[in-house]
Hints:
By secondary structure, the chain is α/β, with parallel strands linked by helices. It is built from ten helices and ten strands. The strands form two sheets. Strands 3-2-1-4-5 form a five-stranded mixed sheet, sandwiched between helices. It has a five-stranded mixed sheet with strand order 8-7-6-9-10, sandwiched between helices.
Amino acid sequence: AAGPLVLSIESSCDETAMAVINGRGEICANVVATSVDFHARFGGVVPEIASRKHVEAIVGVYEEVMAQAGAHLGVDTLAPSDLSCVGVTAGPGLVGALVVGVAFAKGLCASTGLPLTPVNHLEGHLMANLFQTPDLQPPFVASLVSGGNTMLVHVRGWGDYQVLGATIDDAVGEAFDKVAKALGLGYPGGPVISKLAARGNKKAIHFPRAMMHSHDYSFSLSGLKTAVITYIEGENRAGRPINLPDLAASFEAAVIDVQVAKAVTAVEETGVSDFCVGGGVAANPQLREAYRKRFGRMGVRVTVPPMVVCGDNGAMIAVVALRNYRAGVLADLSLDANPNAHL
Length: 343
Ligand code: KG4
């Protein structure tokens, strides 16, 4: 009754993740193993470490997701023959990380005869919004903000994506990570910065709002990052203690002001009435609130993914895989990873 069962595999960065969903898009199991702790002391993801950790984790994650899905469905453990399709993230991402998931998916499909479908990681972040708003329908505007991407997209239809603009240098998540690194706050920077910012004064320090009035949808984050680091160094040299909450709040406000301003213009120019956000930075409470406030006044509905599917996960990949499977978008066993895949 619940239709096909789809297994998804995601290994584009530092999370080894798999999920099983049914034909109604309901999650039967969602398992994430992260190697984030192994990257923390380097202040960012080390690609070779990520690859090795995927190799270590992937069989265990598979056994766990099949066991959890089995328990959910009232059987002992799911067998490959219970599945209808395997979906795997083919890109974009770190090539040495992607190939681990792709090779595992191909091995599984080669040994079982299950069909294979390739999934675009960014489309996964976009469709994670369906867990919050199942009736979300194009056209709408989406902001994709993660450690690797910052873009505004006009979703004209599912699979019909017009990228309105993107960052010309750093991604938003990357800026959070680099500021946190400069403050010795570890990796990833987003969660710790946003927690500090929640009790800071965002007007304490003025940081530049780059390209805010550039009349396009491009973003630039590297100047802001440099301004924050220059500020930190200046305070350190002067022997003044840094008020971390104020610094975090002021930095975040500079990011959010530009994100919101460009999103508003995109929604106005395209004439849509829905706006959504995807990617790890979508977990940021102040960003969510700023969108809700601004768009609330305009009567535009704002959707953000549930917290558990903001960061990289298998469930969002499974949603895309299910759509692909139904549309007959399949790959043969020559599928390769594409680290630069476009939306
Ligand atoms: O989507 P994701 O898990 O991986 C990528 O595909 O990049 O996003 C991770 C990024 C990191 O840069 C992290 O610092 C950021 O998302 N992030 C946040 C928050 N939580 C995670 N950024 C701002 N505020 C947050 N609360």
